Amino acid sequence: METVALPYIPVRRAYETRLYDVDWDNLEMGRYTSDHMLVCDFSDGGWQQLQIVPFGAFSLLPTSLVFHYGQAIFEGMKAFRTENDAIHLFRLDKHYERFAKTAERLCMPVLPADLFREGLRRLVELEQNWVPGQTGGALYIRPFQIATDTKLSVKVSDSYKFAVICSPAGAYFARPVRVKVEREYTRAARGGTGYAKCSGNYGGALYPTAMAKAEGYDQVLWTDGRNHEYIEESGMMNVFFVIGNTLVTPPLSDSILDGVTRDSLLVLAAARGMKIEERPVSVKELEHVLETGGISEAFGAGTAAVVSPIRSIGVDGRDYALPIVGEKGSVAITLKDALDDIRYGRTPDRYGWNYFI
Ligand SMILES: *Cc1c(COP(=O)(O)O)cnc(C)c1O
Q1: Quick one: residue 268, left, alpha or beta (phi over 0 = left, psi -120 to 50 = alpha)?
Q2: Cα–Cα distance for residue pair 66/103, rounded to 1 Å
């Protein structure tokens, strides 16, 4: 039988674990990091040794390009512990594909798929005690890559640092949010980097979000950068509406991020026979259905919170409450439960989404 050689990944272990410092009943998002990280440098035209080392500081010169010109990208995914105590990475290949697409947009090389896959598998295997057991919990995994050439002129870097760190995340109830249709600021323009998970997109979103918060909202509902006429996303999540008896979400474009959660929910909704439309939703239509009661639900979808129910939408200063906000039996919660059932091993994974370590 033919065997495929697995890449060799040396491991330098941490002297002691920080597992016992963790308050497992109160896992604030991003508060703790696990003991080890995966790292790999790109230099001299190629990827150097992929390795696992203790979590710790990087040493970078102030002239490193990442500090100046924003060549920085990331991913966000999760490892789950099923009810049978098996651990898997959820939709690893889909996350890798997006990482590769993002890297291309930022002129960065990307680690080959087999190294990425095996590196993450080995890291999560080593950190398995960091994967929470309780339903709703998961190990959040953050691959990222930065430009490390030391030069002060704008250019495509010739060297990079790729790394993956992990953070245990608890089961948390996403508090229903008040969102504001953003009519002035833009997250992503046509031809821009909106579809890529590059760091600059998030820095630019902070100010409009802070302005919305000052007005009493939790989050902005982004509209297209051209005329602010069509809904795109909700904060750092894709957005879904239940209009009539149809699940509606804006179609992917170069200004909308191709969310893995969005894709998963669409698959699960179709399997349940729900009516689905991927089509543009104008602010005008949204205002109309909010006024006439033609809309029952709105929610954000993303890896961090899975589903985040929206309780009200503000359009040009007028707030409309949604009639159904994350109740049992709602579309949002039905789809979230269906996704969780697969991830926690309560129903068969018919789609091959769970990549067991
Ligand atoms: C990461 C992200 C999402 C959600 O993607 P998932 O793969 O579902 O986590 C949606 N919108 C933006 C802008 C994002 O950065």
Answers
A1: alpha
A2: 14
Sequence-separated (6 or more) residues with CB below 8 Å from residue 292:
none
Q: Which residues line ligand 1 (CB under 6 A)?
A: 76, 197, 233, 236-238, 257, 259-262, 302-303
- Amino acid present at 147: A
Test site for ligand 1: of 303, 308, 336, most ligand atoms within 8 A of the Cβ:
303
pLDDT digits (tens), the chain, 357 positions: 566 678 899 999 999 999 999 999 888 888 999 999 999 999 999 999 999 999 999 999 999 999 999 999 999 999 999 999 999 999 999 999 999 999 999 999 999 999 999 999 999 999 999 999 877 899 999 999 999 999 999 999 999 999 999 999 988 767 899 999 999 999 999 999 999 999 999 999 999 999 999 999 999 999 999 999 999 999 999 999 999 999 999 999 999 999 999 999 999 999 999 999 999 999 999 999 999 999 999 999 999 989 999 999 999 999 999 999 999 999 999 999 999 999 999 999 999 999 999
Distance (Å) from CA 111 to ligand 1 centroid: 21
The minimum-distance atom of ligand 1 relative to the CA of 237 is 10
Between CA 319 and CA 4 the distance in angstroms is: 58
Q: Domain locations in the chain? A: 19-172, 177-343
Of the candidates 251, 332, 328, the one whose C-alpha atom is nearest the C-alpha of residue 297 is: 332
Specify the DSSP class assigned to residue 275: E
Measured in Å, residue 290 CA sits from the centre of ligand 1 at 25
Looking at 3.30.70.1290, 3.40.50.40, 3.30.470.10, 3.65.10.10, the CATH number of the domain 19-172 comes to 3.30.470.10
What CATH number belongs to 177-343? 3.20.10.10
Output the residue whose Cα is nearest ligand 1's atom 3.
237
The helix (H) or strand (E) run that includes residue 74 is: strand 72-74
Probe residue for ligand 1, chosen from 96, 257, 258, 308 as the CB with the greatest number of ligand atoms within 8 Å = 257
C-beta of residue 270 within 8 angstroms of C-beta of residue 297: no
